[in-house]
Amino acid sequence: MGSIRPLDIAYAFTSVLAVAVVSGHDPASSLLVQQALREAQASLQRGEPGTAVRVLERQLPYINGNAVYLELLSQAYESYLLELHQLGRTDLLKTYLERLEILNPSRAEALREQWQIGSNPRSSHRMVARGRLDDDGLPGSVSPSDLLPLADQAFLQGHYEQARLLYWRAHHSRQRLSAMQRQRWAYATWQQIYLLLQKPAGPMIYWPVVYQEALQVIEWAPDWQFAQRLLQELQGKALSYRLNVQHDPQRHGDWQVAQSPHFRIYHQQANLADQVLSLAEQTLCVNIWFWFGELVPPTWGTPCEIYLHPDGQAFARATGVAASVEGFSTLMHDAHHAGRVLARRIDLNAQAPGLLPRLVPHETTHVALAGRFGPHPLPRWADEGLALLAEPPETRQFYRDQARLALLQGTALPIQTLITLEDYPPHFQPTTFYGQSLLLVEYLSEHGGKWTLVNFINEVRRLGYEPAVRRWYGLDSLEELAQNAWRRQVAAGQGQAAHLALPLARPHKFTATTHPVDNGWNRR
Q1: Cα dist from 130 to 196, 336, 368, 369, whole Å
Q2: Does the pLDDT of residue 376 top 60, yes or no?
Q3: 152 and 120, same structural domain?
Q4: Do 481 and 431 fall within a single domain?
Q5: 36/39 Cα distance (integer angstroms)
Q6: Which residues contact 300 (CB under 8 A, 6 or more apart)?
Q7: Please, are residues 473 and 456 in contact by the beta-carbon 8 Å criterion?
């Protein structure tokens, strides 16, 4: 086989971010690496290379360049590719050829030639997700005080889409807009809505999100007749919205396959698969609007794969994760820029009691926000705190109560430790960690606005935490943040943004139109 480059593969999979509901073990343990080797070898002997690949990829960040591990992963990739080719799964061949190419370039090239599959230049095929705040041509870390002048300038130059986004971001950075600026924001928004309504086809538009924005800006110019007409048309679009789900008439092994604009689901229950896809697409679109102000979600080069395992035992066999875990998500990042996401995957237990109200929104938030906060993976506290905002109110309140109890009892993580964690600490209480993460996200959003929080998260790794706290919140240190967030606000239970939540419609409201087509912990 060709030479193995441990550094490349370690960077390429540097963010396998798994959200498990039940876990308390240290994922960096060498025992887990050895266990993964044994499980993968057994899977290969059983003729299950796909399972071997998933088991090995899960521990990649912790192998420290283990050559035996990488050799086995290369063998697993090759066996899995042969199986995919035999099954006619051309949609997955390129993905796993790229992964094999990192470990064994000559073998990957031989398979490409044998199957007549071209390879794109690395510079193009690797950038499949928007990874920086300024990918849309807008400033990424503009000072809040500069947002309104930039918005006014864009508006006066007729760049209405850019102006709308800048006004939105200024508003959610706690900047005070004048009456004229609010009307300009409204006008720019109606201009963009008009253009969206004129499109006969194109990128997927989740009309309920557009309608929510329209309801906000109509208040600033209620006498505009053209806006009232557009609002009426938009209301009809929102109320009649149906997700277009394509069902593949051919089975793929034990799986049926269905696809929406951003997700491909492998399942054994068509009705449940439709509900999962509807909820996943909604969660993606709402996240992108709620945190970034964008009315149309980004286009992903490769759909996020969702595996809806029929029960806990099937889930455990396929993933190597305990059956008590209800679901997790997996991300593969670019070797040189973690903001560029190469692949997204969600594994779910179809029998999990909280599948639709909790798991799907939580996991989809992880994959939706991946790559949107600069060239590094999200800090753990932010990743979990943001995902919890997609869960039901009663779930969020449970975690708040657990965190406040731990803070009062002195068993919580100090904020300086919590905010700088790069991974889950060993022997910790997940409910406390989740609750503290949620409270911190709520506090920071309440005291600076959503867009300030986005910029803070984006810059903490570039500037460091204390400089970022000073720049975006005007605080001198993490200790001052601890005093504000924990001692005065959290322990006393006062001043919390308890109503901050992702504005999701709950599952019973979801419908989808379908037609056939012819053809733990979250892991970083």
Answers
A1: 21, 14, 11, 10
A2: yes
A3: no
A4: yes
A5: 5
A6: 128, 129, 262, 341, 344
A7: yes
Q: Which of 465, 500, 494 is nearest to 480 (CA)?
A: 465
- Domain assignment present for residue 84? The answer is yes
Using the CB atoms, write b or e for 257-290: b if 16+ within 10 Å. bbbbbbbbbbbbeeebbbbbbbbbbbbbbbbbbb
Q: Is residue 410 part of a domain?
A: yes
Residue 438 has pLDDT above 80, yes or no: yes
| Nearest-angstrom CA–CA distance, 291 and 455 | 10
Residue pair 54/320 in contact by the 8 Å Cβ criterion: yes
Residues 6+ apart with CB under 8 A from 389: 365, 396, 438, 441, 500, 501, 502
- How many other C-beta atoms are found inside a 10 Å radius of the C-beta of residue 329? 30
Q: Are residues 115 and 169 in the same domain?
A: no
Report the chain's C-alpha Rg in angstroms. 23
Angstrom distance (rounded) from CA 206 to CA 215 = 15
- Residue 266 zone, left/alpha/beta (φ > 0; ψ -120 to 50; rest): beta
> Do 320 and 114 form a contact (C-beta atoms < 8 A)?
no
The verdict on residue 387 lying in a domain is no
Confidence of residue 396 (pLDDT cuts 50, 70, 90): very high
Contact 424, 380 (CB under 8 A): yes
Residue with more model confidence, 14 or 177: 177
Say yes or no: 159 and 74 in one domain. Answer: no
Residue bearing the bigger pLDDT, 189 or 202: 189
Domain coverage including residue 47: 6-125
Rounded to two decimals, the pTM is: 0.74
The band of 491, judged by pLDDT with boundaries at 50, 70 and 90, is: low
Q: Is there a single domain that holds both residue 196 and residue 226?
A: yes
Domain count, the chain: 3
CA–CA gap between residue 354 and residue 351 (Å, rounded): 9
The last residue of a domain, from among 181, 215, 240: 240
Q: Are residues 481 and 399 in the same domain?
A: yes
The span from the first CA to the last CA of the chain, in angstroms, equals: 27
Let me know: does 246 contact 258? Beta carbons within 8 Å. Answer: yes
Q: Are residues 186 and 236 in the same domain?
A: yes
Tell whether 397 and 473 lie within a shared domain.
Answer: yes
Specify if 224 maps to a domain: yes
Listed residues 95, 125, 155: the one ending a domain: 125
Question: Which residues are bridge partners to 245 per DSSP?
Answer: 514
Q: What is the pLDDT of residue 32?
A: 72
Q: What is the DSSP letter of 349?
A: E
